[in-house]
Amino acid sequence: MLNWLKHKDYPDFWNEYHKNFNSKTAHTLTTTRFVIFDTETTGLNTQTDRILSIGAIGLTGNVIDITDSFEMYITQDTFNPETVKIHGILKQGHITKVSEKEAIQLFLEYIKDSILVAHHTRFDLTMINNALARLQLPKLKNKTLDTEILFKKTKLCNQHNQRYSLDKLCNIFNIAMHDRHTASGDAYITSLIFLKIIALLKKERKITLKDLFFGQNRRGLL
Fold it and tell me: Domain named Exonuclease: which ranges (predicted)?
């Protein structure tokens, strides 16, 4: 059985994605490509709800590269009218949409082996991994970071048991909430928060890439 799993045939796009992790090149905080991403969904139930859109933006060397971005809307087989007032994505509308399979394939091609960053990462990762499971594919291989957990590493956080929403961190860092509750808009906002957190950590002490992962608490939004 284990031998069959080891030699299971996967589609070419998954094999190409998998190859990105063969390199043993050591990366630093300034040379690593981070991909800050967000998903808009039909709801918060990771088992029954589905992804409506994925937005992402690349960041390398403390610089947000707006040319290195990703935005994809997915055809809605599952529709929840109650959440439209939050994300504004209609079942039909005029936005070009693709199948879940195509969106996931293009997302894998985009992220490669980058470190993935999101706010309350566990929810977004679960939604992506569930989509992969529906395609009979393994989970994402990328390392991940959560901006709420990173914020709690800073001296600016004085209540570690408190939950920090994206809105709350925007208020703390005085970041305008343009395009809030769109995947691309939230990804950009999260990238600004990520940069401010990194700047804080650097000011407080000398940090390395490994320090960002040290002591991460896996409990989060689900």
Answer: 33-203
